[in-house]
Amino acid sequence: MHVNDPIGAITSALRRPLEKSFSVMNLGCGRPISTYEYAQALVRALESKSEIVPIERPASQFDLYAEIEQARRCIGFEPMALEQSMKIYANELRT
Predict the structure, then answer these.
(1) Rounded to an integer, what distance in angstroms lies between the CA atom of residue 93 and that of residue 95?
(2) Inter-residue long-range contacts of 47-56, CB under 8 Å, 24+ positions, other chains counted
(3) Full-model pTM
(4) Which residues contact 13 (CB under 8 A, 6 or more apart)?
(5) Do the beta carbons of residue 27 and residue 79 sit within 8 Å?
(6) Where are the domains of the chain?
(7) Tens-place pLDDT, residues 45-84
């Protein structure tokens, strides 16, 4: 997730009065993304010819993702797509 997404979520939360005095919301992409998928998106965004070499690993407790329905419902949170996020990140790396 690019830093613009949580900043946008905070801005939205400040502009929208919440029904409760406080609320806890997950921010993230809202779907599982594998390390391989993430690496592929970064390689494409950088227009790299790098080969991604997957490695075998046992199942991990880190195969988690943020469920963001409450943030969508309460503050209209919608993260940018992985490809868009990686393009912005790649441009930042280039500058």
Answers:
(1) 6
(2) 47/90
(3) 0.77
(4) 74, 75
(5) yes
(6) 4-94
(7) 999 999 999 887 776 666 678 999 999 999 999 999 999 9
